[in-house]
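ARCHIVE CARD
Drawer: 12
Card no.: 0347
Subject: one protein chain, sequence and derived structure
Cross-reference: see card 0346
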Amino acid sequence: MIEIEINQHPLSLQELRAAWRGPVSVRLSDAARMRLTASNEKVREVLESGKEVYGVNTGFGLLANVHVGDEELDRLQENLIRSHAVGMGERLPDSIVRLVLLMKVKALAEGYSGVRPALVEALCGLINEGIYPVLPRKGSVGASGDLAPLAHLSCALIGAGNVRVDGEEKTATEALASAGIKPVRLQPKEGLALLNGTQVSTALALAAAFRTEDLLSAALVAGAMSTDALQGSDSPFDERIHAIRGHAGQQDVAAALRRLLAGSDIRASHVDCDRVQDPYSIRCQPQVMGACLDVLRSACGVLGTEASAVTDNPLVFDDAVLSGGNFHAEPVAFAADHLALAIAEIGSLCERRIALLVDPKMSGLPAFLVRESGLNSGFMMVQIVAAALASENKMLSHPASVDSIPTSANQEDHVSMATHGAARLHDMLDNTANIVAIELLSAAQGIDFHQPHTSSSLLQEAHAAIRRISPPYETDRSLKPDVDELAGLISAGHFYRYCEQILPAA
């Protein structure tokens, strides 16, 4: 387990990926505690001056013009949390909730939110004790903060709602007591600071980006295997072709494909064949997958910045308390929409190669990759399934950020839909992991037909991993268990190491 110190340095993609992959421990630096204390004292000063400050001694949203008396300020914050805890839908996995908690700690610890060190320490306690609030997936429009899901997170701090510990759901009261953590009694500004922020949409998008890293690696392995299975040429991956275009992702993908295919005996066996050019799904892998890699890198840059950003409102500075709109998640929405395009294209390219593999006219292999075709349908249906999933992804890739709907009695009249846009990425990733798994199975079957010739050492290693899951296809059987297990292997990051050197969070 790694320890992450919350200081003035941004959270790195490596730290964020580690927190997504498994438990981490978190501690505040002394400097962070000092910043928190100073910020909280500023809130106290403002209250003592009698000034009205949004969300501190006023109502929220359209109710900002309603003054709240000093004797009700603590209750105001608790009421905010309880009233906003109305999220819907399936529960977010612990891995994403852990990211949300980590980013919330980082945002508050910057010292612009006016909260006490004790509040942030309590959040650290949830992370360190493995207490993950139950957060519904739906209910945020990605502006004014991810209000509904963050309200559910905040409920855990005050001893309300449910949490998960070691995969078991229990009440927050029970979990806090077992861990020796006292429920927090909120003070002015603290409930609002907890609810304002883009941490849920950012965590969903970041987790999707990390999953895309795993997926892209597996897809490059699958593409290289298909190239060999189809007796395709590696000449289109020549370094000189990509250097004169200049796109970094394209060059890096071409290099990865060259490395994956280096030493292939199958390639050597047909190096002098009369085929002039391969179909685009083989020949243009660097151009398509390279563009996907560039999108992934760009998205990780945006999301990495957002992960350490202060997205609260109002913000407490040394000389003023200022209302703004850092909670508007448009950067996250755009990053999610761009990722959606990349995920859809990865799956689309894989599906096209599966279609080549099962077509004897294009592949030169037995129809549907089975020797006794006709009696056996072979890989016929899994190609149809891949086509269905690729088509569903096209529908899901429609940009979420172009949508907006006014909320809070038109006070919040333009929203980002970032949370929806980021959440749908995981459905797309599930689809694409299945498509890539189908291609890996298909390509492995195709390579078997070239025996005694073998692929490269790296691809034979990947082939062996596939064969431990799925034996050679001789007679008809359901491939669903094979696809499910292989998709799980992809999602677990098994293929990450094959292309780790070109990935943004490596």
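Annotation on reverse: The chain has two domains: 3-197, 204-502. The chain has 20 helices and nine strands.
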